[in-house]
Amino acid sequence: MRKLCLLLCAVLTMVVNLRSYAQTPRIPEASSTQTIIQDFGLGKITITYSRPNVKGRVIFGGINPWGQVWRTGANSATTINLSENVIMEGHKVPAGTYSLFTIPNQYEWTIILNKVVKQWGAYSYKESEDFLRFKEKPVYLAEKRESFTIQFANATTQSNDLHLVWDHTSISIHMQTDDDAQITANIDELMKGNRKPYYFNAIQYYYENNKDMNKALGWALEAEKVDPGAWYQLWEARIRLRMGDKAAAIAAAKEGIRMAQANKDDEYVRLNQAVVDQAGG
Predict the structure, then answer these.
(1) pLDDT tens for residues 71-93?
(2) What is the distance in angstroms between the CA of the first residue and the CA of the last residue of the chain?
(3) Which domains does the chain have, with CATH numbers?
(4) What is the pTM for the complete model shown?
């Protein structure tokens, strides 16, 4: 009985503590926190940062003085996690987590990846802990962005652009994957077995990255036999056009149009017709 009473007391204490915590009044942060995740190659890029607002202030050259290290956000320094190796503006960056700092100047910014994470602001920042520094030129924006924003643009399997945007200023950082050899090896391994589930992605990867078009065409022709439809006709047409065989590209695309029309698939009618137009048919 004594043990039961002690257990009940412990449970009641925990419930009371949880209720007290849940009822604690909260105040929102002046600069909200955001985490963005972008699939990239075989991995992901995860960025966590706080978003200050303009609030009628002069930002760059004002509250963020020219030539001084900025946390690239508010509160804790912005962090960027790379699950795989990447190439950032031509510089190889190993997988890992870094703090993202910048030094704004009127005509040129310094972009910094620092090896120390979980820093509050830039108060304890040390240049000696930098992994990488490079320069980027700012672009003036006619339309003001009230909240500081980090976003990805032009994202493909092999590259993307990381944008830092605030007030009337934008910085673009070009990134590329460093895993083409691994992806190609993975495709080769997958295509040794039942190819049907992998035809589309394999063909698309080879086409978009301008790899071996003969191999991609072979896969497209195989795929048409096991899964006939306007989609693989489209890839055959695109590949043949890239290889310079306009007549064969037009023939494949027109067959794709016929199939798409039979299935009332307006999207693939349009996509195949685009190849016909590009080939001058």
Answers:
(1) 999 999 999 999 999 999 999 99
(2) 90
(3) 32-177 (no CATH), 180-278 (1.25.40.10)
(4) 0.75
